[in-house]
Every structure is written in structure tokens, then in C-alpha cells.
Amino acid sequence: MKKCFIILAAMLCVAPAFGQQAPATPAATPQSPPPPTDIALNLKRQHATIRKNLAASAAKMAETDYGFRPQGVDPVVRTFGQFIVHVANANNSFCARALGEPAKAAVDEKATMTKAEYVKLLEDSLAVCDRAHESLTPSTAVEMLKVAGRNNTTVEIARANPLINNLAHNNEHYGNLVTYMRAKGLVPPSSEGQ
């Protein structure tokens, strides 16, 4: 009996502690959700980011290092300058396709150029992409275009498709540029200030 009394007394002492509630917090004021981001706006934002990183990379690399490729790699691996030309050619191709325009003639990746010429080539190609992204709306993003396909065929694609492919391509090769910049002791634009 004495044991029961002790257990009952302990329970009565502890019970109020479990019954206490945390102090009430003031009700949060309801906030409206942010507006939805449509596909066109999302692609524009992604383009603005990679555009800035590519242009800044081209500007940051020393002219003497445009011929740089990592030591010991096969000579078929592109130099920094060749990557800039490759990216510019792809920008012209993908973004002209989204605009429904013919692409500019591709520049030979192995052509010898000055840094100023590399930078201008890249900037001009990014301007084509700027136009393609600026003209994109949620409705035109899904608009079907007839474009040349493989083996002399015509295929239908959504206008946004080449822009999505271009963003993937640009980000892939920005990774190459980052590696080359790090090898030269430079901080890539996307890592500055971190």
C-alpha cells in the first residue's frame, strides 16, 4: 500500500508538468505565395546567369592563356580559346533556331584570333541568345517550329527546346572553362566573393 501511495504521489506531482503548454505564439500573418515562375522567365534567368559567367570568364583569362590546355592531355582536347569559339558557334546555332532564323556561319575552332576577337565572337553570339530569350513568352515557349532534322528531314520542336539545350551546353562547357581558370590560378566568376 505504501508503494502505491508513493507512486500516486509522484504521478500527481509530475502530471502538471506534462499538462503545461508552451506559451502561445502570436498568429503569423498570412502571406500570399510568391507568383509562379513561368517557363520563359525561368529560362531567361538561367540564361542571364550563364551569360554573365561565360562573358566574365572570357574577359578574365589572359590573352596568352587562350591557347592553354591542361598539360599531358591529348591534343584533340580544346584549348581555352577553342572552347570560347565552340560555345559561340553553338549559341548562334541553338538561339537562331529558337528565333526561326538561319544561324551565322560557324567559325573554325582552330582559327588564330586575338583575345578581343574571341571576346567579341562570344558577346555577339550571346546577343543572339539575348534576343531569343527576350522574345520568349509562356505561350511562344511551347509553340511548335518546323526545323531541319537529320538526314534531310524536317522535325517539329517546341521553341523553348533549343534554348534548354543551349543552357545545358553552356553550363557543361562553363565547367571546362572553370577547370582551365583554376589551373591558371584564377577564381571563376561564379565563385568570386565566396
What is the alpha-carbon Rg in Å?
29 Å
Count the E strands.
Answer: 2
Order of helices and strands: HHHHHEEH
- End-to-end separation in angstroms reads 70 Å
Assigned CATH class: Mainly Alpha
CATH architecture: Up-down Bundle
Strand count, sense and barrel status of the largest sheet are: 2 strands, antiparallel
What would the CATH topology be?
A: Four Helix Bundle (Hemerythrin (Met), subunit A)
Q: What general outline do the C-alpha atoms trace?
A: flat
Tally of DSSP helical segments:
6
Key phrases:
194 residues, mainly alpha, Four Helix Bundle (Hemerythrin (Met), subunit A), two-stranded antiparallel sheet, 6 helices
Quick description:
By secondary structure, the chain is mainly α. The protein has helices at 2-19, 39-60, 80-99, 115-134, 138-141, 160-183; strands at 144-148, 154-158.
Protein model, in words:
The chain has one domain (about 40-185): dinb family like domain (Four Helix Bundle (Hemerythrin (Met), subunit A)). The chain has 6 helices and 2 strands; from the N terminus they run αααααββα. The longest helix has 24 residues, at about 160-185. Strand 1 and strand 2 form a beta hairpin. A two-stranded antiparallel sheet has the order 1-2. It is mostly helical and about 190 residues long. The chain has helices at about 1-20, 40-60, 80-100, 115-135, 140, 160-185; strands at about 145-150, 155-160. The termini are far apart.
